[in-house]
Amino acid sequence: MLKVYTDAATNTEKSGGGILIISEEQKQVSISLTETNNHQAELAVILYALNYLIDHKLNDQTILLYSDSKTAIKILDQRQTKNKLFLPYLSEFNELASQFPLLVLQWIPEAKNKGADNLARQGLRKKL
């Protein structure tokens, strides 16, 4: 079982994403994102995390994915959205989720997501 924490940091021009993967070892990933809308950035970093797990052959186990974005978790967990901006993210999520035996999405308060938040801020600084 892997615990994966994700977060995005956004200003008016750029975004960064942070991913903290916890198992026997801890892996930290900080990325720059092209999205400038915070909700889109939160969705993008979740997709990046899932792609990262697949690329590193870590998708053969249960994944508990945590985010402090209620909007992102709700869209992906319910697998529906009325917002056309979010449809491409939902479509990609549906394809990726099928590659995991069990993928559990969970909202957590921002205060419990400090590791991913720090990484997201690093990713934002990379863009500036």
The general outline is: globular
CATH class: Alpha Beta
Total helical segments: 4
Structural class: alpha/beta
Question: What is the CA–CA distance across the termini?
Answer: 35 Å
Strand content: 25-35%
Q: How would you write the strand order of the largest sheet?
A: 3-2-1-4-5
Quantity of strands, as a count:
5
Looking at the chains present, what oligomeric state does this protein adopt? single chain
Q: Which range best describes the helical content: under 10%, 10-25%, 25-40%, 40-55%, 55-70% or over 70%? A: 40-55%
Topology:
Blueprint: E1 2-10, E2 15-22, E3 26-33, H1 38-55, E4 63-67, H2 70-78, H3 87-97, E5 103-107, H4 114-127
Parallel strand pairs: 1-4, 4-5
Antiparallel strand pairs: 1-2, 2-3
Helix pairs in contact: 1-3
Question: Quick gist of this model?
Answer:
41% of the residues lie in helices and 27% in strands. It has a five-stranded mixed sheet. The longest helix has 18 residues.
What does this protein structure show overall?
It is a single chain. The chain is of the alpha/beta class and about 130 residues long. The chain has one domain (about 1-125): Ribonuclease H-like superfamily/Ribonuclease H (Nucleotidyltransferase, domain 5, 2-Layer Sandwich), CATH 3.30.420.10. About 40% of the residues lie in helices and about 25% in strands. It has 4 helices and 5 strands. A 5-stranded mixed sheet has the order 3-2-1-4-5. A hairpin with a 3-residue loop joins strand 2 (about 15-20) and strand 3 (about 25-35). Helix 1 runs parallel beside helix 3. The mean pLDDT is about 95.
